[in-house]
Specification:
Length: 206
């Protein structure tokens, strides 16, 4: 029975979550702040795990036709996220830094070679919140691609008690999106991690 309910949740939850996402999106007043220009060139794309409700929608607003995939963990919550992002035409790459890391990195490089953009939450799937894992930095440096950073702040929101302090903007609020493209050229791996974390924390909800 428990297994059945779990499987039912995986099927039912994604369309419900997507409808909530779109309802908030369409009722909110949205402002886009381009800290740096964003063109159609290929990037590695990042947002914090706690900002997953709105940031993928902002990505699709900015890059409506660009082929994209996202690194998503293999646990049940990851399956729900994968199916939800499927409605935005974002293809899942299943694995994380802790489980299936080598396989998912190989998938990511194949996606990049196929001209897809790869989306990653540097502090996913289990945190700590706003910690910077090696995945996004490693992929960007090895692929010689800039990083597309997506953050947002909402005038009114709920914040869950989960490890990522997941943010749910309230309907009809104002959402300010902060978008920037960062070059890691000339930086060491550790320097790039510090730099990216600093930039991603400038416009996030604490």
């Amino acid at each position: 029975m428990k297994s059945f309910l779990k499987q039912a949740g995986v099927v039912v939850a994604p369309p419900v979550i997507f409808l909530i996402m779109r309802f908030i999106w369409f009722t909110a007043k949205k402002r886009f702040h381009y800290i740096t220009p964003i063109d159609d060139s290929q990037h590695v794309c990042v947002c914090w795990h706690g900002e997953l409700l709105m940031s993928p929608q902002a990505y699709r607003k900015i890059h409506p036709r660009h082929p994209a995939s996202a690194i998503i963990s293999q646990h049940t919550d990851g399956e729900i996220i994968a199916r939800t992002l499927g409605f935005l035409r974002i293809r899942p790459l299943r694995g994380s830094s802790k489980k299936g890391a080598k396989q998912v990195l190989m998938q990511a490089f194949k996606s990049i070679k196929a001209k897809e953009e790869v989306l990653i939450t540097p502090d996913g799937p289990r945190g700590p919140r706003h910690a910077m894992s090696d995945g996004a930095i490693g992929i960007a440096l090895k692929s010689d691609l800039p990083i597309f950073v997506m953050n947002y702040q909402a005038s009114s929101y709920w914040q869950l008690g989960s490890w990522d302090r997941f943010v749910i903007p309230k309907p009809f609020c104002q959402i300010d999106f902060y978008i920037q493209s960062l070059s890691l050229e000339g930086l060491s791996h550790q320097e790039a991690k510090v730099y990216l974390k600093e930039k991603m924390l400038e416009h996030t909800i604490q």
